[in-house]
């Protein structure tokens, strides 16, 4: 492999890493189904800060299946088991402009082809940020979703 190819490869990896939304911080979980082998099924509550809007944190609850497949990371999580609640946790400042429908958070929910993601919209008329969580697959997604809204001060706008 040439030096140029290696440099381009490293640059692409860095660009993807920088463009990807930050991961979530686990706040807590509750066990829902006992599994004799492997971890139990549970509901996990995670928090993540909006990377482009300082002062907004979203809390996401979702299922994590356990058992042997869950322990190995090859289980396919349910499509419809997620809820979101976003809140102001400090002074809100939009750090950089964004487009409606931009991904704020994304996580894989199966070994291949399935993700759960949170996207952001700006309701200019009401000066409100709207966050939507949904699951998708390459072949077939789920229409089930959850939404949360954060009202902004009059002086905060994109």
Summarize the structure.
The chain is mainly beta and 158 residues long. Helix content is 15%, strand content 49%. It has 2 helices and 8 strands.
Total helical segments: 2
Spatial arrangement of strands, main beta sheet: 1-2-3-4
Secondary structure class reads mainly beta
Give the termini distance in whole angstroms: 45 Å
* Sequence of secondary-structure elements: HEEEHEEEEE
Average of the residue pLDDT scores: 78
Number of domains: 1
How would you sum up the major sheet? 4 strands, antiparallel
Helix fraction?
10-25%
Roughly how many Å is the radius of gyration?
A: 18 Å
Strand content: over 45%
Catalogue the unreliable spans.
Answer: 4-21
Please report the total strand number as a whole number: 8
Shape: elongated
